[in-house]
Amino acid sequence: QVQLEDSGGDWVQPGASLRISCTASGLSLANAVVAWFRQAPGKKREGIVCATESTSSYSASVKGRFAVSREYFKNTIHLRMNNLTPEDTATYYCAAVRKRRSSNFYCDNIRPNPFDSWGQGTEVTVSN
């Protein structure tokens, strides 16, 4: 059974940085595609990051500010978020699926459907 644990969410001020993490059990993230989604109150879930062992894709809303890093020996993937704004306030979820198709299949359009394991979410609040 695959389990994902999201962690690291916090309250920060605008302009600050924060790192959130996704740790897996039951699935080697080195052989998986991992995505980050976020959902703000009253809004649809948004796919923002998609990563394989060697590639990373970012939505326009976070590109240039967010970056993925990998610690496969801990079976963990981190998301470093820089220059946060109030518009980044949301619950962040990691999702994963064992990679069986090309990276483009999963990451060209970051959507929930291919991912079969989800974290519980971690809350990020950006405000003064």
Which descriptors would you attach to this protein?
128 residues; mainly beta; seven-stranded mixed β-sheet; four-stranded antiparallel β-sheet; 1 helix; 4% helix; globular
What does this structure look like?
The strands form 2 sheets. Strands 2, 4, 5, 6, 9, 10 and 11 form a 7-stranded mixed sheet that branches. The chain has 128 residues and is mainly beta. The termini are far apart. The chain has 1 helix and 11 strands, in the order E-E-E-E-E-E-E-E-E-H-E-E.
Summarize the structure in short.
By secondary structure, the protein is mainly β. The chain is 4% helix and 47% strand. The strands form 2 sheets. Strands 2, 4, 5, 6, 9, 10 and 11 form a 7-stranded mixed β-sheet that branches. The protein has a 4-stranded antiparallel β-sheet with strand order 1-3-8-7, with no helix packed on it.
